[in-house]
Amino acid sequence: MKKLTFILKLGFFPLLILILSAFSNINSVEEGVSYLQKSFASHYDLGQESDQIKRYELNVTNNGFCRYKRFYINGKTEYFAFKLSKFKDLDYFGSTETGKLYLHTKGEDVIVQTYRDRGGDVDSMATQIIIPIKNIQPEDLNLIKENLRELSSKF
Fold this sequence. Notes:
This protein is of the alpha+beta class. It has helices spanning 2-43, 138-154; strands at residues 53-60, 65-72, 77-83, 87-94, 98-105, 110-115, 122-126, 128-134. Strand 2 and strand 3 form a beta hairpin. The chain is globular. The mean pLDDT is 87.
């Protein structure tokens, strides 16, 4: 009987660890997405485009997408989106006060759509999304990059 109890205990603990690690992975994805969403929202610089852009939407979703939508004053809309699993690297050009964040993908993985443009609606693909950023420190950029890399491996 003691031998059976011992064998059951040996099987129970690895199973418990497996179950707990499965739930911790979900939390880390949600935490990473939440961090990116908050970072993009707090550092977005509408002032760089305020004479052209009426409003914008910048979202990182729990199902692994980064979406950026700009609504122009003249009615034109631009939409950019890519799957986080396609993230390759990021670059930042500017100072700690203002600059542009370039999110690069592995290939032409960024969906680009324009609506109500003078040249007509256009669907195309790109290799990067450019986001205007303000008030960002190098440590924040490193954390954004780290979260994007971690999430890209999970989706």
